[in-house]
Amino acid sequence: MSEFNKTPGLILLPAVDVAGGKAVRLTQGAAGSETNYGDPVDAAADWASQGAEWIHLVDLDAAFGRGNNHSVIKKVIRQVRGNVMIELSGGIRDDESLEAALATGAKRINLGTAALENPEWAAHVIAEYGEAIAVGLDVRGTTLAARGWTEEGGDLWQVLDRLEQAGCARYVVTDVTKDGTLQGPNLSLLREVADRTDKPVIASGGIASLDDIADLRSLVRYGVEGAIVGKALYAKAFTLAEALDVASD
User: Fold this and answer.
1) What pLDDT does residue 102 have?
2) What is the dihedral of CA 195, 200, 203, 209, to 10 degrees?
3) 8 Å CB contact between 217 and 244
4) Residue 195 annotated as catalytic
5) Catalytic residue among 61, 138, 175, 212
């Protein structure tokens, strides 16, 4: 058995990003850069059929503050309920939107902008819901991005220290400059974040090849638990089944 096969598995979360009721992918998170990939329910069903255990589901319109896709999000979750766990993100910024997100049946909720702009509320939610809450750290350099990546959200390391004190259970780390570009993940950023917390880190942004999956798997021993895979799957660079083989076998 090779050393690689002895390394712990990497959890893969195929992404379904929803805008205007459609499954889309953005380039570097920019509104207006959407590529349309059809029905989000079909996309989720496809990932489930290929063996996904998790799906990373994002309401982009809610994230950008331009409406929401609540009915579509509910349909997606109903389609895969019982077979796939959902990590839900986008526009969850207060008690009402959090309760609505939890009511969908999502297993885990990602806080983004609210964790940056409303630290007291975020700390309360983290304390109340524990493992059901992750915080998305969307980064350009070491500066966080907020409000659909349209505004700056503070220094990565200062915010991470604050979230550690609040007891955050998990972080989703995205290099915004890599997201949707198929240029490879920012391994050094992920390693640095993982070195500063003993909580699991989920990688996001830039995955383009099965070699990238293997590179991320090599970081599992340091605390990188999983990886969100988006554009590479939609562009058919590889299948989810192929990626799962690399991530877990």
Assistant:
1) 94
2) 100
3) no
4) no
5) 138
Q: What is the 3-state secondary structure (H, E, C) of 172-211?
A: EEEECCCCCCCCCCCHHHHHHHHHCCCCCEEEECCCCCHH
- The amino acid that residue 98 corresponds to is L
Q: Which of 169, 167, 85, 79 is nearest to 132 (CA)?
A: 169
The amino acid present at 47, given as its one-letter code, is W
CA distance 102 to 98: 6
C-beta separation of 152 from 176 below 8 A:
no
Side chain identity, residue 26: L
Catalytic residue among 17, 59, 212, 215: 17
88, HSE (Cβ side, Cα atoms, 13 Å): 29
155 is catalytic: no
Tens-place pLDDT, residues 130-183: 999 999 999 988 888 776 555 666 899 999 999 999 999 999 999 988 777 788
| Element (DSSP H or E) covering residue 21 | none
Write out the two tokens for 1: 């058995």
User: In this structure, what token pair is assigned to residue 91?
Assistant: 């526009």
